Amino acid sequence: MRTVSLGSQGMAVSAQGLGCMGMSTTYGPSDEQEGLATLMRALDLGVTFFDTAEVYGPFMNEELLGKAFIGKRDKVILSTKAGFRFTEHGKLAMEGEKPLVTGDPSHIRKSVEGSLRRLRTDVIDLVYLHRIDPATPIEGTIGALADLVHEGKIRYLGLSEASAKTIRKAHAVHPLTAVQMEYSLFERGVEHNDVLATVRELGIGFVSYSPLGRGFLTGALKNLDNLHPTDFRRFDPRFLGENLQSNLLLVDRITEIAEAKGVMPSQLALAWVTSTGTVPIPGTRRIRYLEENVAAVAITLTQDEMKALDAAAPFGAAAGERYSSGMMATLGH
Asked: Where is the NADP-dependent oxidoreductase domain (predicted)?
């Protein structure tokens, strides 16, 4: 696995990272031993960049990574995220269907301190503000995170799901190393809302989450029948009704190009994301899929293949919003 620079602040990561959320939440019941085995296999394959967040579980996913990397801390780059509110019982705080976010400096400090404990480390390589709180000036939130950098508890800072305007404001307070956004052949909004252009202008790295469209771009998901009742895709607009049927046609077009190249649809999709100069963090809890994903790093695309993919999956091709209305309300600030 080759190493690439993430941004211009000195951070280096594997060309493909591993999104760890699904090992603990969101896609139905998980198995800790399977998660630990997958994390170890990722290290064997040269993956060094691991993505988690305090809200994944909540807290369970950070604890999993902390357990996995005992004695291996010098071999991994750990990134986590802060910025959601929780109840006194440790559950995600909600207002109806909308998760509650916060950029309150005291809350952010408390969250990072908790992440340090759960990850069993003295310093976190990269901390993102998970969502932007429009009620708290971004300058104050980034100032609090910058204090933690100066204290040696965080190495680098990032934002997740932020507007170009907010990225500029934050970067002016303390240099950002990375911005993490959803980006794939299924979701190309960052090409058109000035986010991708802004990070490139400012020398900020870009981390692409859900580069396989939450499993759509594997070509294996044809209906919801085999999804666990708690799998959030059962409630995701892009997986419902007519949207599902329309999006399956998009996947069919990508699959045709993959078959012509002799690779899997998932590998083609990951090769495309990598070719854009961003770092994808596909998530999986299974070694088999991890190995398939990592193999995509070696795939190069011709100009003709890139043009074919642009035609097959242009901006706006996916039907439906990418989240429920409650989650959509947390984006784009």
From this structure: 17-312
